[in-house]
Amino acid sequence: RAQGGAPAGGVKPYLLDALKLWLRTSVDELTGGALTPRANGGGATYLHSRRAFSPGLLCRTQMAALAKVAGRTGVLALSDDLATLGASHAANLRSALQFNRERLQRASEEFDTSRALSPADGMVEMESVARSLHRLGVILAARTIVLAGARDARAEVMPHAVSDFVSVLGAQQLPDYARASSLPPVARLLTEHGAVGDSIDLDADLLAELGAKCDLKTDPALWRLLPQLLAASLQLPPWSSLTADLASDALPNNLHTVAFALHALLSMVDPLMRAPASPSAVAAAAPPPGGGGALVAHRRFVELA
């Protein structure tokens, strides 16, 4: 038997399918396609300090128990399934970038001159952008719970030195200044141990899936406008009328999880922001996901927002 009690061959396919369905159903229940608080009080709230959607929908204790049953294969499959689901929502941003391309380019140039972001009024498909960010945020929050559970399960059956070694391994710098976490085998090991934690910018598994679904290589210049689009999305409802719940350190309908979406998307395009403007030079110049270095896209977003 494998570590944590799972059969050596991994979790049974029918059980894995059931776990995936349960996770996806939970995510659907949390988003529901709405951007306003639900009539039932907003449903379960994501509490980052506990790594849980409380009360009782998803929590790290549940995920730790599942990790013991599902083993390495199950943890990786659940993590990958949520990454794939999230990437499908990230890819929806392409149409908004395309429709608003000229306006975003003009707004970026005006900002560099005036240091003032143009109003987002009149931009198209912004409601779709808000929905995609919300859903992606909830999905990534759920994924952090899965990884936290995997980390807890590993800690129960392995010496802490093993997890520490995996974390240190992922942080090692390679000769090209990228981090070892950018190497696919190391990335899988980090995911398996839940060692990525909240460092989405070093989560090469997730960033590779997002980049593939968004098809960054087809039009890198388009995706370099993403910080402008994300900053513009914060000018519109529901952000203008939100009231934070200080007791739970949360926003209505889990809109605070949008922070995960912003971090992931900006990390995804960061290599493009650091690459030469010529599309032909992007492949050679852009560091791989998880490559570390200055987060140029994040800095640009903060300036704009």
Q: If you had to describe this structure to a student in words, what would you say it looks like?
A:
This protein has 305 residues and is mainly alpha-helical. Helices cover 60% and strands 3% of the residues. It contains 13 helices and three strands. It has helices at 13-31, 60-91, 93-99, 101-114, 126-157, 160-171, 184-193, 204-214, 220-223, 226-233, 258-274, 279-285, 296-304; strands spanning 45-47, 52-54, 58-59. It has a three-stranded antiparallel β-sheet with strand order 1-2-3. Strand 2 and strand 3 (58-59) form a beta hairpin. It is globular and about 55 Å long. Residues 1-9, 33-42 and 278-293 have low confidence and may be disordered.
Number of helices: 13
Order of helices and strands: HEEEHHHHHHHHHHHH
Q: Low-confidence spans: pLDDT under 50, at least 5 residues?
A: 1-9, 33-42, 278-293
Q: What proportion of the residues form beta strands (DSSP E)? A: under 5%
Class per helix and strand makeup: mainly alpha
What percent of the residues sit in helical stretches (DSSP H or I)?
A: 55-70%
Mean pLDDT figure? 81
- The neighbouring-strand order within the major sheet is 1-2-3
- What radius of gyration results from the CA coordinates? 20 Å
